[in-house]
Design goal:
Two copies of one chain form a homodimer. By secondary structure, chain A is an alpha+beta fold. Chain A has helices at residues 19-38, 52-55, 61-65, 85-99, 138-154, 166-175, 182-189, 192-195, 197-207, 212-222, 230-239, 245-260, 326-335, 357-372, 386-395, 406-411, 430-437, and strands at 42-43, 49-51, 69-71, 77-80, 103-112, 124-133, 159-165, 268-270, 281-290, 300-305, 319-325, 348-352, 377-379, 400-404, 413-418, 426-429. The longest helix of chain A is centred in the N-terminal third of the chain and has 20 residues, at 19-38. The radius of gyration of chain A is 28 Å and the shape is elongated.
């Protein structure tokens, strides 16, 4: 029977995840989960597929175009989620009365966007979101910033969190009669890190209708970012004459944050140019950069919003939250050589010098005993010669081999070989093997 | 600005995953991963979306119909994976030369099937597969059965693994000149647990063209399942005259399995009626039932196959593997009341008797200190009155509250209240709080 071979391939913009990606991802997810749990956050998930009307029109026109949207077998108009925020809003609208508020949740899951593939950008990637919903209290703002710091600390990642408050810019825009153009202004300011001040000035001139005074007022304000002393910037802002009421409130909120956040100065800076282009933020906004690789941009961003789920419920759901770009962070740590060594899964390999059911049983029983002592063990999965077995173990970066033949079975021992050093092998009792592995 | 509310809903056959599902799922996945790692298995993942031609025609006609298949924005014919076996085959065809064999991998991920929704059956569910590929050795068979036992033990699940060898039935079919109908015969025999012997007899009569002798030969063979003594059944099979060479080989393989698998009799039975309808199994096959809930059927099944990826590569990739239906297992444990208590994420709640930046800072700093001692802490996320804060904590099943006001800040203490017992509260130093929590 002749069979045609189907060319094996993955879709453009997608990729397989071999152990070299999955081991660090698994370990990072565990550390993040442990951190979230230590702050009382609970895990949720939502379906990958949603009705398209749930997802459409809440993101930008761009995300609408990037959706994987289709008719299912029942002619339902469905799409794959492109973020975890809209599913949270839909989930909250349906479940929050049962779950109660304030509700602390985290959500680690893949999302899909048919973006133009670029180096390091894929059409499927894992996001990691955490939010406290159902509260307007600044207590929740402080807690979310603490979680970010603690999460990145637990990953051993050197970072700075740059915070700002939307009320500062919104107050300024209102006093400049630019409140109706706030989206455009915020998105222009957002570009300062990537494209520089000249591009921002050019865009602001366009938005203000070439009003030099207004453009200058905005540029003067965001130039405060150059002062790296958060307390000094706050003091300066407070002393400005003619502050808008919104600005006064924004300053007070930032003062509260810096006063209550433990060890704030060690990891947190005020940066008045942080805008976060999305319309729904209303108070605290923040971005997080890697100290050793600032050029990759923010690896954790978010802020406070007044109403999460207004599209789906009349119930007001204010909250504050953040999103870690997990795959981006993994790529960055890989670039920095900080992913750690994940090549070997097992601490010891059990090889057979001879083959019989009795010898194999001895090996399997030994493996079981070692695993009960929390030692990870790989047993040979191919008969073959001893040399080939040891070569395999060495290729898998397993440091030790326990070799078993009829001699070892008779004397209830194993022959231990250090595969890395090539040291001379030695015969030891099972008890001594256990000691050796400790 | 009036806005129309979009009715929030999830797709038919899908569901949200609140903390009551996600906490046990997370904890079970961790235990399973730890078990796989202790056997030297490495994690992989593959994209949720694949080219349809990769997925089509490898499963059954039924799975083809159940696929979520569509044209993406680039007019590519794509589909969501409906199992983890075909993605493994495609992955192996592309990556196995780099990864080397034998290759032990596990894969825990959602799959999608547009099945008719039923109680406990969803269109999105998590599967958990593990395989050793690139080896024909029985060593790998024993290892996979050991993994199943160890994995379910680590979940605290009482179970029996029922094993069989396809060669027994295939040899019998060949000697009855029924080899060309093996698929139909195997699928008929598969129904014995669910539908009973009479239905199987009826189907076998149809498949054999109402040949009473052949039907009786098959029924006599599978009636050996009634003997629960695996060693006796093996001895009986060995003593049958006129065994087919395939049967002789199957018996030898089963003898080897029972001789080498540590403590086999404690959890493993020979059941000659285990058929596993899928065509690709060639040797060992197995199913696993819950001792306390056998009627839900197998929660972990699999077997040995000669060639995993023949559709995608000319390289022969034999292997052996198993699949745990994770969501099904969670539902079963829930039914048995064995999921454990997962209601509370935090061990202690920090509440505020009064509100000021200084008092809040004291609370946040205390929370940080407790978390450094691995205590999970939720701080109040709403100002409000103390009573309301404590009521919230109690609703979240958090057992203890640490109450902070200006008195506590001044004396560097906290007031501890046991929320469950309503015991009288007591003021303690931070050091004593740490001792109390240990």
């Amino acid at each position: 029977m002749k069979q045609n071979i189907i060319q094996p391939k993955v879709l453009k913009g997608f990729r397989d995840y071999p152990p070299s990606i999955m081991q660090p991802r698994r370990d990072m997810i565990r550390r993040l989960e442990d951190c979230f749990v230590s702050f009382g956050f609970l895990p949720i998930d939502t379906p990958a597929l949603e009705y398209s009307e749930i997802l459409l029109g809440k993101g930008s026109e761009e995300t609408d175009k990037q959706m994987y949207r289709f008719l299912d077998n029942g002619e339902r108009d469905v799409a794959l989620r492109f973020d975890l925020t809209i599913p949270l809003a839909r989930f909250a609208a349906m479940n929050v009365s049962e779950l109660g508020t304030p509700f602390r949740r985290y959500h680690i899951a893949p999302v899909w966007r048919a973006e133009k593939p670029q180096k390091g950008r894929f059409r499927e990637f894992v996001q990691c979101d955490f939010d406290i919903i159902g509260t307007t209290s600044l207590l929740a703002d402080v807690e979310v910033v603490s979680v970010i710091h603690s999460a990145l600390q637990s990953l051993g990642v050197k970072h700075r969190i740059r915070v700002n408050n939307r009320k500062l810019l919104n107050g300024l825009l209102d006093s400049l009669s630019l409140a109706d153009r706030s989206g455009e202004v915020l998105r222009a300011i957002d570009k300062i890190d990537k494209l520089g001040l000249d591009v921002v000035r050019e865009e602001l001139l366009q938005v203000t209708g070439h009003d030099q005074d207004k453009t200058q007022a905005l540029l003067s304000f965001i130039s405060l970012r150059e002062n790296k002393d958060s307390a000094a910037v706050l003091a300066h802002l407070k002393n400005l004459a003619g502050n808008h009421p919104l600005q006064i409130q924004g300053i007070a909120e930032l003062e509260y944050l810096f006063a209550t956040l433990p060890a704030a100065s060690e990891f947190c800076d005020l940066d008045v140019s942080i805008a976060r282009g999305l319309d729904y933020y209303t108070g605290l906004v923040f971005e997080t950069s890697l100290v050793d690789l600032p050029q990759i941009g923010s690896i954790c961003s978010g802020g406070r919003y007044d109403n999460l789920a207004s599209l789906y419920t009349k119930q007001s759901l204010p909250g504050v939250g953040a999103s870690i770009g997990l795959d981006r962070l993994i790529a960055a740590l890989d670039e920095l050589g900080q992913l750690g060594n994940h090549k070997s899964a097992a601490a010891i390999y059990i090889a057979f010098a001879e083959h019989s059911a009795e010898i194999h049983h001895y090996g399997f029983a030994l493996a079981q005993r070692l695993r009960q002592q929390s030692v990870s063990v790989e047993t040979a999965s191919q008969e073959g010669k001893l040399g080939a077995q040891l070569k395999y173990a060495d290729k898998r970066n397993i440091p030790l081999a326990a070799i078993i033949g009829s001699d070892e079975v008779a004397s209830q021992t194993v022959t231990v070989k250090n595969l890395g050093s090539g040291e001379q092998q030695q015969k030891v009792s099972i008890e001594n093997l256990l000691l050796l592995l400790k």
